[in-house]
Amino acid sequence: MITRRSMIVGGGLLLSGCDKLVRQPAVDGWVERAAGLHLPAQRLLVSRHALAREFSAREISPTFRANGNTMPEDDGWIAHANQGFSRWSLRVEGLVRRPLDIPLQALKTMPQRRQITRHDCVEGWSAIGQWMGPELRGILSLAGLLPQARYIVFHCADRTGEDPYYESIDLIDAFHPQTILAWSMNGQPLPVEHGAPLRLRVERQLGYKQAKYVTRIEARASLAGLYGGKGGYWEDVAGYQWYAGI
Ligand SMILES: Nc1nc2c(c(=O)[nH]1)N[C@H]1C(S)=C(S)[C@@H](COP(=O)(O)O)O[C@H]1N2
Ligand SMILES: [Mo]
């Protein structure tokens, strides 16, 4: 159980920790529900606003392994790759006021965040790399989330057999300042094997959440009814945890 005093203290931490976040109507509802949680769960949620560790340029790994799919076979993606992605755009749709097609060039000229972070794969390897791109929260603000939106889904160009790769995160991670759509890795345009032209970096989570070859972002109220319903390719096919916090 939780006393009234500790509820107020916990709520105060949440509000001061992320006032940008709580201005979103969908998150207001979340904050209200969070106030009904018992204290350990609430502490856990508060800690999710912390930043992932960032490293110095000297610590960037000389080689960064490419993992999973390293070359989509999708005709549309291949056609764009052959044009150097010069006519490629990101689709933003679902529970948004203004569905958008944002050209790659426009994504590169929005305010950028650059971060040097460690990527941890469940298969037991890690690598430090520098990522740059616009913050996801800026893109979501442009599109305007509707109040029912609870999850952001990242649809990718690659598939394994019949199953397309996709991933999803909640609004806490979507509005986290280190959650970016990276078009640049180690100072160069994102290489094909690492997800060209655009990938997700959601730095508080494991490697499989870092969706490569992102073509479309969808805001949804629920993950039910989408592919296997577990919110991601590996979650559906292998039972990996949906929240892969590190
Ligand atoms: N679209 C897509 N994204 C993906 C994958 C994939 O196969 N397809 N593999 C995931 C896994 S398990 C890891 S560890 C990282 C690997 O990213 P990297 O190739 O840049 O090292 O991408 C993740 N994102
Ligand atoms: Mo991975």
Automatic annotation (TrEMBL):
It comes from the Bacteria. Residues 85-220 form the Oxidoreductase molybdopterin-binding domain. InterPro entries: OxRdtase_Mopterin-bd_dom, OxRdtase_Mopterin-bd_sf. It holds the Pfam family Oxidored_molyb. Gene3D superfamilies: Oxidoreductase, molybdopterin-binding domain. This is Molybdopterin-binding protein.
